[in-house]
From TrEMBL:
InterPro entries: AAA_16 (IPR041664), P-loop_NTPase (IPR027417), Sig_transdc_resp-reg_C-effctor (IPR016032), TPR-like_helical_dom_sf (IPR011990), Tscrpt_reg_LuxR_C (IPR000792), WH-like_DNA-bd_sf (IPR036388). SUPFAM superfamilies: C-terminal effector domain of the bipartite response regulators, P-loop containing nucleoside triphosphate hydrolases, TPR-like. The keyword Nucleotide-binding applies. The keyword ATP-binding applies. Residues 861-926 form the HTH luxR-type domain. It comes from the Bacteria. It comes from Microbispora amethystogenes. Pfam families: AAA_16 (PF13191), GerE (PF00196). PANTHER family: TESTICULAR SOLUBLE ADENYLYL CYCLASE, TRANSCRIPTIONAL ACTIVATOR DOMAIN. This is HTH luxR-type domain-containing protein.
Length: 931
C-alpha cells in the first residue's frame, strides 16, 4: 500500500458516508498490477472498520458468460447465513423472485423467470436495497473488468437512488475502451473514479527493499523503476526474481533483468514455470483452467491424481504462484491468466473440454458451457447439446447476450445440417432482443436454411420486425410480401401475422393508402382471427379511422379496445398499442397520460429496454401535447439512457425530434437547431418520422423569420402526407405552418385558404388541442373584426382539453388583441397566459406575456407556478395515502431527494407546512389534475 494514502482517504470517506445513509460508487481503475486488488482488500478492511457489512466478489473471465455471476457471489453467502425471518425480510417485495433469477441451488423454482433485462435489474436491485435496510453495506468487487454484463447492469440500474441508501460500492478493474456496462459505469458522473498512479522512484525503491532486503542497491532500484514504469506488481515480481537469480541481475544490470523477467508478467511466469517440475506445471495449468471451480477433487482428476496434486501444490506455493493454507488459489488473478495464456492452444482446449465433462454433473449449464467456449470445434454432438442447453438456461433468465454467445459457439462446432437451421433461427430470435443488426443476419440465414415455405415465412416474420426496428420499412415490406406470395394457402395464422407486420411498416412508411389498405381489407374479411391478430387489426383500424377518416369517437373507442385487450393479457403487441396510444394522445383523451405513466413504471420494472423505451417515448409525446415541457425533456433523456443499452439506430432521431420541439416551445432556437441537426446526422429515418423532422425544421425557419423556406418545407411535408391520404392535422400541422408563413409573405388568399382547410379538418376531428390551434391560426391570418371572435372561441375550446401550453398561447393572442377595447378581459387573459406559460416552462411565451401586460399598463405578477405538475401530483397522492419518502421514491423510481424537492414545491404551492395539511388541501381544493 505504498503511496496510496489519498486513495485510502477517499475510500474511508465513502464508507463513513454510507454509514450515515449516503451511499455511493467508487471505481478504482488502472492497468494490470497497479495495485487495484490491494486497494480492494483495503476497502474490505475499511468497510468493516466503518461499521458496514462487507460483501466481496471477483470478476472472472471464465464466468463472464454466466449471468449474474458477480451478484451471485455477493448475495449467496447472505442467503446461506440468513434464518427464516431474515430471509423473509431480504426477499420482500419484488426481491422475492431474485433467487429464481440467480438460479440459486438453495431453493427450488419459485415461479417463472422475470421476463426482460429491466425486470431482472429491478428485482436484484431491490434485493440489495432490502439487504441495506438492516444496516450499512459495502459491496467490493475486484477484477470488475471481467464481471458479467448483467451484474454490472444492476449496479447501473441502482445508481439514481444510491445516494439515498446506506450502501457503498467499490469496484476495481482495468480500463476498457469497449462499449458496455463497465464503460458506462466509468463514465457516469455519479461514480467516483480513482486512478492509482505508478510508484515514484522513491516508492519503487521502498518496495524493492521490502522484497529483497535493505541491501538492495540504488542501481537495482532505479533499474526496476525504469523497466516496470513503477507498476507495483511488476516491481515486486522483478525484484524477487532478481534476488533469486543473484549475479548481475541482483546488481541492477538491465539486460540481465530483461532476460530474467522483463516488464511483462507473462514472461516472468514462463521463467518461473520453466524451473518447476512437470507435476507443478500441470497443477498450475489445471488451476488456471478451472478458475473459481478449482477444488481439490477436480484438480486431482485433471492433473493426474492426488499425488500429483500434493507435490505440485507444495512446489507452487514455495514458488509464490499459489497461496498457502491449502487453497488452490493464485496469488494474483493476473498470475492465473498468465499461466492460462501460456498453455498451448490444443492442450488448453483439451483441458477445458475435460473440465466441462467433469462439471456437467451437478453444475449449472452455463458454467459447463463457459469451458466449452474455450475449446476448439470438433463436430461433437455433446458439445452442441450442452451449449444449446446453456443458451436456453441463460435466455430464460434474462441473459440474452450470454445465450447468443453459447449459440454462436454451438454453430461453430458445427451441429448437424438438420439442427443448424433451428439453431440459426434461435440465435436470431435471441439477438432480436438486444442486437437487431446481428438478428437480421441470423434471420436471413434462417430463412434461407428453412426446409419449406412455412419455415421461411416464420423466420421472415421476425426478420421483418428487426428490419423495421432498424428503420428500413420498405425493405421489410418487400421481404414479407415475398414470403406471403410463397406461403400460399393453408397457413392462415402465419399469413395474418405477416400482414399485421406489413401494415405496421406501411404506416411508418406512408404507404397506408395502398399497401396498408390492401392487407387491412384481407384481415377484415377473414372469418377467424387470433386474439393477437385481432388486437393488431383494432390498432390499425383505430389509426386509419383517426388519420384518414377523422372519426374521433370511433377511433378512440377502437383504441381503448386495444388497450383493454392488452391489459387483460389477451394480446400484447407493440405496434397496435403504439398506434392506439398515438390516437388517444391526438384525441386529447383524458386518461391517456395516466395510463402511460402506469405502463412506463411497469415496463421499466418488467419489460425489455426496447419496450420500456417505446412506452417512454409515447409518454413524452403525451407530456408535450399537454405542455409539460420540463417533464418531457427529462423523460426523453431517460428514454435515451434506457435504450442506450440496445443498439437502436433511430435513437438519436427520436431524441432530437422531441428535444427540438421542447426547445422551440421554450424559445431556445439555437438549442432546437442543434437537436435537429443531431437527429439528422447519422441515419435516414422512415418517412413518417422524416415528416416530423421536416415540419419541426419548418417551424424553426418560421421562428427565425425564414418564411419562404418554412412554407416550402411545410408544403413538401403536406404533399407526402396527402399522397397517402393523411388528413388529420393533430400530429402533422403542416397547413398551420404554411398558412403562417404565407401570411408573413403577404400571400393573404393562399394563407386564408390553408387556414380554412386546417380549421375544417380540425372541426371534423374535434379534439380541443387541434381545433384550438387551428382557430388561433385562422384568427391570425384573417385579422380584422373576426380575429377576436376566433381567438375567444379558441380559448373556450382549449379550456375543455388538457393542452395547457396551447391554451396559454391562445390566451396571449386573445389578450394582446383585445386589451385596448376590453381592458379587463384582455389583461385577465394575459395574466392567465403568463401563469400557464411559467407552469409549462415556456420561457419565451412568458416573456412576451409579461411584455404585453406591461404595455397594457398592468404590473405583471411575480413568477410562480400555482398548479402542481404531473410529477408533483403523483408524489402528493402517494404522500397523502401515508407513503414514506423512501416508499414513494421506490414506487416512482426516483431518489428520496427528488421526493423531498417535490414535497417542498407542493407545500409552497398549496400554502401548507406538513403532510396532514397537504392532504386536507388536496381533498378540499378545486385544482384540476394537470393530466
Amino acid at each position: 500500500m505504498l503511496e496510496r494514502d489519498a486513495e485510502v482517504g477517499r475510500m474511508r470517506g465513502l464508507f463513513a458516508a454510507a454509514a450515515r445513509g449516503q451511499g455511493g460508487v467508487m471505481l478504482i481503475e488502472g492497468p494490470a498490477g497497479i495495485g487495484k486488488s490491494a486497494l480492494a482488500g483495503a476497502a474490505r478492511r475499511l468497510g468493516r472498520t466503518a461499521g458496514c457489512r462487507v460483501l466481496g466478489a471477483r470478476g472472472s473471465r471464465l464466468e463472464q458468460r454466466f449471468g449474474y455471476g458477480v451478484l451471485r457471489q455477493l448475495v449467496e453467502p447472505v442467503v446461506l447465513g440468513a434464518d427464516t425471518a431474515q430471509r423473509v425480510r431480504l426477499l420482500r417485495g419484488p426481491a422475492h423472485r431474485a433467487l429464481t433469477l440467480l438460479d440459486s441451488h438453495l431453493v427450488s423454482r419459485l415461479g417463472g423467470p422475470v421476463p426482460g433485462d429491466l425486470g431482472a435489474f429491478h428485482v436484484l436491485a431491490r434485493l440489495l436495497v432490502n439487504l441495506a435496510k438492516a444496516g450499512p453495506v459495502a459491496l467490493v468487487v475486484d477484477d470488475v473488468h471481467w464481471a458479467d454484463d448483467l451484474s454490472l447492469r444492476v449496479f447501473l440500474h441502482m445508481l439514481p437512488g444510491l445516494a439515498e441508501s446506506p450502501m457503498a460500492v467499490v469496484l476495481a478493474g482495468r480500463p476498457s475502451a469497449a462499449p458496455g456496462p463497465f464503460a458506462e459505469l466509468a463514465a457516469d458522473p455519479a461514480v467516483t473514479v480513482l486512478r492509482p498512479a505508478p510508484l515514484t522512484p522513491a516508492g519503487t525503491a521502498a518496495l524493492v527493499r521490502a522484497v529483497g532486503g535493505e541491501a538492495a542497491g540504488t542501481r537495482l532500484c532505479a533499474a526496476c523503476h525504469r523497466l516496470t514504469g513503477g507498476n507495483p506488481l511488476f516491481v515486486r515480481e522483478l525484484a524477487a526474481a532478481a534476488g533469486a537469480a543473484g549475479g548481475t541481475a541482483a546488481e541492477g544490470d538491465e539486460e540481465a533483468l530483461r532476460a530474467l523477467g522483463g516488464p511483462a508478467l507473462s514472461r516472468w511466469m514462463d521463467a518461473v514455470l520453466a524451473h518447476l517440475t512437470p507435476e507443478a506445471v500441470r497443477v498450475a495449468q489445471v488451476c488456471a483452467v478451472l478458475g473459481e471451480e478449482a477444488g481439490p477433487g477436480l484438480v486431482a482428476e485433471l492433473a493426474g491424481g492426488p499425488e500429483t496434486l500434493a507435490r505440485g501444490h507444495d512446489e507452487l506455493v514455495a514458488a509464490g504462484v499459489l497461496r498457502g493454507g491449502g487453497r488452490l488459489e493464485f496469488v494474483h488473478d493476473l498470475t492465473r491468466h498468465a499461466v492460462h495464456s501460456g498453455i498451448a492452444v490444443v492442450e488448453r482446449s483439451r483441458l477445458h473440454r475435460r473440465a466441462a465433462e467433469l462439471l456437467a454433473a451437478g453444475h449449472p449449464a452455463p458454467l459447463v458451457a463457459a469451458h466449452l467456449l474455450e475449446t476448439l470445434p470438433s463436430g461433437d454432438g455433446w458439445v452442441v447439446d450442452t451449449l444449446v442447453a446453456a443458451a436456453d438456461h441463460a435466455s430464460s433468465r434474462g441473459a440474452p447476450r450470454s445465450a447468443l454467445a453459447f449459440l454462436e459457439r454451438a454453430l461453430q462446432e458445427p451441429p448437424t445440417p438438420e439442427a443448424t437451421a433451428g439453431l440459426v433461427r434461435m440465435a436470431g430470435e435471441i439477438a432480436y432482443w438486444f442486437d437487431w443488426p446481428a438478428a437480421i443476419g441470423y434471420l436471413r440465414r434462417a430463412a434461407a436454411l428453412a426446409p419449406d415455405a412455412a419455415g421461411r415465412a416464420e423466420a421472415t416474420e421476425l426478420l421483418g420486425r428487426a428490419v423495421v426496428l432498424n428503420g428500413r420499412n420498405a425493405d421489410a415490406i418487400t421481404l414479407m410480401e415475398n414470403a406471403l406470395t410463397e406461403l400460399g394457402d393453408g397457413h392462415a395464422e402465419l399469413d395474418h401475422r405477416l400482414r399485421t407486420q406489413i401494415i405496421a411498416a406501411a404506416a411508418a412508411e406512408l404507404d397506408l393508402r395502398h399497401t396498408g389498405a390492401r392487407h387491412l381489407a384481407v384481415l377484415s374479411a377473414a372469418p377467424r382471427l387470433s386474439d393477437e391478430v385481432r388486437c393488431q387489426l383494432h390498432g390499425f383500424t383505430a389509426f386509419w379511422t383517426a388519420v384518414v377518416e377523422l372519426d374521433r369517437d370511433a377511433a378512440v373507442s377502437t383504441a381503448l379496445r386495444v388497450l383493454r385487450l392488452r391489459s387483460s393479457g389477451m394480446a400484447d403487441q407493440e405496434a397496435s398499442s403504439s398506434l392506439s396510444y398515438l390516437v388517444l394522445i391526438d384525441a386529447d383523451h383524458d386518461d391517456v397520460l395516466r395510463q402511460l405513466d402506469g405502463d412506463w413504471s411497469a415496463a421499466r420494472e418488467t419489460g425489455s429496454p426496447y419496450t420500456a423505451a417505446l412506452i417512454g417515448y409515447l409518454r413524452v409525446h403525451a407530456l408535450l401535447a399537454r405542455g409539460h415541457l420540463a417533464e418531457a425533456e427529462a423523460g426523453i433523456r431517460q428514454v435515451v439512457r434506457l435504450i442506450g443499452r440496445v443498439p437502436v439506430p433511430l435513437t438519436p432521431v427520436f431524441a432530437g425530434e422531441i428535444l427540438a420541439e421542447v426547445h422551440l416551445a421554450q424559445g431556445r432556437l439555437t438549442a432546437a437547431a442543434e437537436a435537429l441537426a443531431g437527429a439528422s446526422a447519422d441515419v435516414s429515418p422512415y418517412k413518417a418520422l422524416q415528416c416530423r423532422l421536416d415540419l419541426m425544421s419548418a417551424q424553426l425557419d418560421l421562428a427565425h423569420g425564414r418564411a419562404e423556406q418554412a412554407v416550402r418545407r411545410a408544403e413538401q411535408v403536406g404533399r407526402r402526407l396527402l399522397a397517402d391520404g393523411w388528413l388529420n392535422p393533430a400530429s402533422y400541422p403542416w397547413r398551420m405552418v404554411a398558412a403562417l408563413g404565407k401570411h408573413v409573405l403577404g400571400a393573404r388568399d393562399a394563407a386564408l385558404a390553408l387556414a380554412a382547410e386546417d380549421l375544417d379538418l380540425a372541426r371534423r376531428w374535434g379534439a380541443p388541442r387541434a381545433l384550438g390551434r387551428a382557430l388561433r391560426v385562422a384568427a391570425t391570418v384573417t385579422g380584422g373584426r373576426a380575429e377576436p371572435e376566433l381567438l375567444e372561441e379558441a380559448v373556450r375550446v382549449l379550456r375543455t382539453g388538457p393542452a395547457r401550453l396551447e391554451l396559454a398561447t391562445a390566451l396571449h393572442a386573445f389578450g394582446r388583441r383585445t386589451w385596448r377595447q376590453h381592458p379587463q378581459a384582455g389583461r385577465a387573459a394575459l395574466t392567465e397566459a403568463l401563469r400557464l406559460a411559467e407552469e409549462c416552462g415556456a420561457a419565451e411565451l412568458a416573456r412576451r406575456a409579461r411584455s404585453a401586460l406591461t404595455e397594457a399598463g398592468t404590473r405583471p405578477p411575480e413568477p410562480h407556478a400555482a398548479r402542481l405538475t404531473p410529477g408533483e401530483w403523483r408524489v402528493a397522492r402517494l404522500a397523502a395515502r401515508g407513503r414514506t419518502n423512501r416508499q414513494i421514491a421506490q414506487e416512482l423510481n426516483v431518489t428520496p431527494k427528488t421526493v423531498e424537492t417535490h414535497l417542498g414545491n407542493i407545500y409552497r404551492k398549496l400554502g401548507v407546512r406538513n403532510r396532514t395539511a397537504m392532504a386536507r388541501a388536496l381533498a378540499a381544493t378545486d385544482l384540476d389534475h394537470p393530466d
